[in-house]
Amino acid sequence: MLTRIDHVGIACHDLAATTAFYRDTFGFEVAHEEVNEEQGVREVMLRVNGTDDGEASYLQLLEPTRDDSPVAKFLARNGEGVHHIAFGTSDVAGTAGAIGGHGVRVLDAQPRAGSMGSRIAFLHPKDCGGVLTEIVQASDRR
Amino acid sequence: MLTRIDHVGIACHDLAATTAFYRDTFGFEVAHEEVNEEQGVREVMLRVNGTDDGEASYLQLLEPTRDDSPVAKFLARNGEGVHHIAFGTSDVAGTAGAIGGHGVRVLDAQPRAGSMGSRIAFLHPKDCGGVLTEIVQASDRR
């Protein structure tokens, strides 16, 4: 059902500086950059490793593009740090339904657009041991 | 240098309940359980996926065994949630030295004992964008 750690999302104030840190100090390569206007974030995906389901694990660096975005509010409350964990699946809608059947609130009734053409749904952190959790179906073209 | 997301460490109050949640709701298998008296934690490793460096990615669930352990203090301050991210390397001492050369404070001058016979070193979260970061060299027997 969930076959990999797809990414760990990290909130930061300065995307360029944080990207440079992870690239220069840890050696991770930038795989992708985009702006997600719906979520109010500018983001960089750093590829860490391939996974045995044929996909990969990334770090996702997130900088808010506006003060009322969820990531801006997270930064104001918590400062920089881990924002969420995302697990990969081949069927985001089916997996969201199965997880919802266990009593976990699925925040996106219809999967929405994530990084690199993926389709995603968030789960309520209070139902997941305090962890904001995302499930991700990668794009076929990824 | 760092070739995988080795694990994401999650602090919890009730290890049995949190393990059951991840197993039953997300389908992750328990790979290992142990108590690390030095760190004051009881822990469960849940295997999520294999990685293309020949190792694997895990979730590490952490319950404190005493009130003065770092994880107990984290829970008192932040509540349940993500505690740290760990990246895998084939040479923890060499990688710690290289990362320290970039100005990141390495909290363990000598690598110490981690999960499943691994050797680990922690990096200062203030030097890693607010993320408590661990580097891990897996045991040959893992």
Automatic annotation (TrEMBL), chains A, B:
Domain VOC: 4-138
Cited CDD domains: MMCE (cd07249)
Keywords, in A-Z order: Metal-binding
One GO biological process term: L-methylmalonyl-CoA metabolic process
InterPro entries per record: Glyas_Bleomycin-R_OHBP_Dase (IPR029068), MeMalonyl-CoA_epimerase (IPR017515), MMCE/EMCE_epimerase (IPR051785), VOC_core (IPR037523)
GO molecular function ontology, one term from the record: methylmalonyl-CoA epimerase activity
Similarity-based family: Belongs to the methylmalonyl-CoA epimerase family.
Protein name: Methylmalonyl-CoA epimerase
Annotated source species: Nocardiopsis ansamitocini
